[in-house]
Each structure stands twice: as C-alpha cells, then as structure tokens.
Amino acid sequence: MSQSPLTMTSAEVSIAVVRARTARAAVRGGRGAKAALWILPIVVFIILIGLWYVAALYYDKVQQLSFLVPYPHQVLGVVFFPNTAVTPSFSSQLLDGLLNSTKVALTGLAIAIVIGVVWAVLMSQAKWIERSLYPYAVILQCVPILALVPLIGSLFGFDFPSRVIVTVMISLFPLVANTLFGLQSVDRSQRELFQLQGAGRWTTLTKLQIPAALPSIFIGLRTAAGLSVIGAIVGDQFFQRGTPGLGVLIQVATSRLNGAGAYAAIITASLLGVAVFLLFGWLGRRAVGKWYDFS
Predict the structure, then answer these.
(1) Quick one: angle between helices 210-238 and 160-184, nearest 10?
(2) Chain centroid to CA 207: how far?
(3) Taking a C-beta distance cutoff of 8 angstroms, is the pair 272, 225 a contact?
(4) 123/160 same-domain check
C-alpha cells in the first residue's frame, strides 16, 4: 500500500522521486530505442540513394555510360510509369518474372525443408549415421553448381524442374547443419531424465529434441529462404528455356543496354529474398518468441 506524500519522511520522498525519474527515463529510453530501429535504417537509405545519384551522375556526365548506372528515378519509372520507360511492357514482364521466380524459390525451399529436416533427424539418432551422411551434405555444399548445370539440364530438361533442383541444392545445407546442431544441443541432464522415465527414441525426439531445436531450425530456415531466391535466379539465368523469371529478365535487359530495367529486376529479386527472409523470421518469432529471443 502506497504512503501519502504528507506522511512520508524526507528520505522516502527522495527515494520516490528517484524511482519516478528512473521510470520516466526507462520509458523514454524504450521509446528512443524503438524510434532508432526505424530512423537509423531510413537515414542509411537516404545516404545510399544520395551516393547512387552521385555515381549515376558521374557515369552519365563523365563516362558517357549512363546505362551502367541509371538514376534511381529512372528505375522507378520502369516499374511504375512503363509508358515513359525504354520498354513499355517491361513492368508486366517484371511482374510475370517475379511470380515465376517466387514459384521456383518456394517450391525448392519446401523440398529443401523436408529433405534437410529428415536428413538431420536421421543423423541425430546415432553417431555412425552422422559419420556416414554428413560428409555428403558438406560435399553438396561445395559442389560448383554451374559445373552441374549442363548435366542437370540434360537429365531433367531446362524448365521448372531443373530450376527447382538448383534451388534445393543451394538452400539445403543450412537447414541440415542448423537442424542437426539444434537436435544435438539438448541438455544432457534432460536426456538422462527422459531415459530414467523409460522414454523411447520417438518420444525423446518429438517431446524433447525437436522443441529444443526449434530456434536453430528457424535460423536455418531464414538462411535457406534467402538462398532459395538466389538459387531461383541462378537457375533461371542458366536454364533459359521455358517460362522466364527474373534471372532471364536481368540478362535480357542487360543485353539491350536497358540499365534501368536491369536494376529494377535486380532490386525486385533482392526484395523477394528479403520478403521470404522476413516471413520466416516472423514465423520463428510466433513459434519460439515467447521463450527464446528470436531477433
């Protein structure tokens, strides 16, 4: 029960004043931290746009190569004002390419999630399984994808399936490595407690290991999500037959010296990667944010 200021001693009043000031400072500090989360990225963005304009001005006026670094407003014009752009239909092509690359990225990511989690779960069950399978995960990560492009195209064609295979190969390793790390990081005392209670492998896996590994799994998902977009773009650039995506659009715009269109496609691909990354970050916070600082 709080005391009335009339009945408090001078020392108690001083303590109450200090506490009130501390509380107000904490509130202001919290608001300032939240504001900084938005203000600082905006400031950096403005600086980057300014540097972009400086570089574009240099290549336009000095080098006479304006197509190499177009002005930011020219890139926006390609997307939002296609009638004034170099290629009037580029905006619709950009949307179609975005949809096609998104399909490839999400399909490859879904397959990589299933393969990666199952692969890691198998390796977590016994050391001999891990020693047998983990080297191949490392080899898959180190294989030069570009060297396999002709072989993949000859075996699976040059359309959607080959693009998905490249996406899976590029995004698989982070899922395997992070999931395995999470499954093996369970506290030994908790494992021993489950063993004392007579829990089997399946119970230990579903009730202890997988819940404890969720933060690591979602970290792997975020990493693989960004790599899946890279895989979709890389596959699209080298399997140029079939339905074109953003990778083909980048190459076509570059070959036609349409710098604004090429930059628009590159930025769109980057924004797609950021969107998928943020989606899995949001899912991670929803899944484990109440008991784990998933930032």
Answers:
(1) 160
(2) 28
(3) no
(4) yes
The residue assigned the tokens 């403005």 is 46
Q: Return the closest-CA partner of residue 98 out of 242, 270, 240, 285.
A: 270
* Polymer length of the chain: 295
Q: What is the mean pLDDT of each run of 10 residues along the chain (295 residues)?
A: 54 56 55 70 90 90 84 82 56 86 93 94 90 90 82 86 91 93 86 80 85 89 91 85 82 84 89 89 81 64
**Are residues 98 and 182 both part of a single domain?**
yes
Q: How many angstroms separate the CA atoms of 24 and 28, rounded?
A: 6
The verdict on 204 and 106 lying in the same domain is yes
Residue tagged 């698989």 (tokens):
172
Provide the whole-model pTM: 0.79
Q: Are residues 48 and 149 in the same domain?
A: no
Cα–Cα distance measured from residue 269 to residue 272, given in angstroms and rounded to the nearest whole number: 5
